[in-house]
C-alpha cells in the first residue's frame, strides 16, 4: 500500500465519525510523545529497547487527557481536531488548564439555544433550578439561586459525613491546595483526580454539541463555567463515592482514573451527559440522533424571514450600485 493510500485511510470523513454519545470516555497519557505517521496518531515511548509505539483510537475517543511530560506534534493535533476529539491538558495533582478543539462541521443550533437561555435572568434561573432538581429532586417553588446554593451545600456536606462514617474515616474536610498536593489525604487526591477527568469528558461533550464552555448558568467568570455546571450533576453519584472508596489506596489518583473509566461504561454516562445538556438548555426541544455531530448546514439570519439558505446570490436587478 502506498503512503498516499495510507494517509487517505487515516483521514476521517463525516460518515466515519461516531456520535459523541457512542465514544469511549477518555484516555490519559503522560511522559509520551504523540505524533502522526502514515497510518494514524501514535504515542511514542523511548526505552532501552528503542522506540515503542501505541496507536490511539482518536476517532473513538471523546477526549485525550495530556498529563505531565507529554508533548504532541501539530500534525497529530490536526488529526485529532478532524476527528472531533477534545484535548485537555492535566497537570500534576489534577491542576488543569483546558485546550478546546471545536470540529468545523458543527452547527450552532445548541449554542444559540444556550445563549438565549443564558442571556435572560429568568430563563437562566430556570436552567439552574433544573440542574439542582437533576441532582437532588424537586426544588421549593420560587427558590432563589442563593437558596439553591445553600441547599446544595448542605446536601454535599451531609453526603461527606455519610460516606466518611461508612468507610470508617474519623474526620474529612474537602481540601484542594495545588501548592501542598503531596500533603493531601487519599480521598482528596482521588476526588481531585476523578473530577479532573470528569471535567475533561464533560468538556468534550459540550464542544461536540457546539455549546460554549464559558456560558455557565451557576458558575461564572471562567472559560470552563458551563463544564463545571454539568460536571456537578454527577459528582454526588460518581466521583464523591468513588473517592471515599479509595481512602486506603496507595495511588489514589491513578486508581480513580481507572475506576472512573469503568463507571463511564457501567453507568453509560457518555450518552447521559449529552442528553442531560440538551434537556437542561431546552427541555422541549426534539433531539434527533444526528443533532450531536451536526452537518455542514449553514444559513443566513434574517430578523423577519428567519433562516434563509446560504450559498445563494440575493442580488436583484432592482438595485443599481453604479456610481454615476
TrEMBL record:
One Pfam family of this chain: Cas_Cas1
Residues involved in Mn(2+) binding: 152, 219, 232
Homology family: Belongs to the CRISPR-associated endonuclease Cas1 family.
EC number: 3.1.-.-
Entry keyword Iron: no
Keyword field: Antiviral defense, DNA-binding, Endonuclease, Hydrolase, Magnesium, Manganese, Metal-binding, Nuclease
Protein name: CRISPR-associated endonuclease Cas1
Native organism: Planomonospora corallina
Protein task: CRISPR (clustered regularly interspaced short palindromic repeat), is an adaptive immune system that provides protection against mobile genetic elements (viruses, transposable elements and conjugative plasmids). CRISPR clusters contain spacers, sequences complementary to antecedent mobile elements, and target invading nucleic acids. CRISPR clusters are transcribed and processed into CRISPR RNA (crRNA). Acts as a dsDNA endonuclease. Involved in the integration of spacer DNA into the CRISPR cassette.
Subunit structure: Homodimer, forms a heterotetramer with a Cas2 homodimer.
S-adenosyl-L-methionine found in the keyword field: no
GO molecular function, one term: endonuclease activity
Cofactor: Mg(2+); Mn(2+)
Domain of life from the UniProt record: Bacteria
Amino acid at each position: 500500500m502506498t503512503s498516499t493510500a495510507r494517509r487517505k485511510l487515516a483521514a476521517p470523513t463525516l460518515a466515519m465519525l461516531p456520535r459523541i454519545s457512542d465514544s469511549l470516555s477518555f484516555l490519559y497519557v503522560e511522559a509520551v510523545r504523540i505524533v502522526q505517521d502514515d497510518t494514524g496518531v501514535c504515542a511514542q515511548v523511548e526505552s532501552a529497547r528503542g522506540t515503542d509505539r501505541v496507536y490511539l483510537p482518536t476517532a473513538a475517543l471523546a477526549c485525550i487527557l495530556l498529563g505531565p511530560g507529554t508533548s504532541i506534534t501539530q500534525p497529530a493535533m490536526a488529526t485529532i481536531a478532524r476527528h472531533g476529539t477534545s484535548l485537555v491538558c492535566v497537570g500534576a495533582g489534577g491542576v488543569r488548564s483546558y485546550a478546546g478543539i471545536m470540529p468545523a462541521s458543527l452547527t450552532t443550533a445548541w449554542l444559540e439555544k444556550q445563549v438565549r437561555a443564558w442571556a435572560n435572568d429568568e430563563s437562566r434561573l430556570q436552567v439552574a433550578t433544573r440542574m439542582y432538581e437533576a441532582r437532588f429532586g424537586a426544588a421549593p417553588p420560587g427558590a432563589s439561586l442563593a437558596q439553591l446554593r445553600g441547599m446544595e451545600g448542605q446536601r454535599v456536606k451531609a453526603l461527606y459525613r455519610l460516606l466518611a462514617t461508612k468507610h470508617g474515616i474519623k474526620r474529612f474536610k474537602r481540601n484542594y491546595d495545588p501548592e501542598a498536593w503531596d500533603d493531601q489525604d487519599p480521598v482528596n487526591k482521588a476526588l481531585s483526580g476523578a473530577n479532573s477527568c470528569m471535567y475533561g469528558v464533560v468538556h468534550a461533550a459540550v464542544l461536540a454539541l457546539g455549546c460554549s464552555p464559558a456560558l455557565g448558568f451557576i458558575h461564572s467568570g471562567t472559560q470552563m463555567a458551563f463544564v463545571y455546571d454539568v460536571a456537578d450533576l454527577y459528582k454526588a453519584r460518581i466521583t464523591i463515592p468513588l473517592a471515599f472508596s479509595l481512602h486506603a489506596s496507595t495511588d489514589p489518583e491513578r486508581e480513580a482514573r481507572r475506576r472512573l473509566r469503568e463507571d463511564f461504561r457501567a453507568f453509560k454516562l457518555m450518552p447521559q451527559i449529552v442528553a442531560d445538556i440538551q434537556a437542561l438548555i431546552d427541555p422541549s426541544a426534539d433531539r434527533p440522533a444526528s443533532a450531536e455531530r451536526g452537518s455542514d448546514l449553514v444559513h443566513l439570519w434574517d430578523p423577519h424571514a428567519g433562516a434563509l439558505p446560504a450559498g445563494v446570490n440575493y442580488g436583484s436587478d432592482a438595485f443599481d450600485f453604479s456610481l454615476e
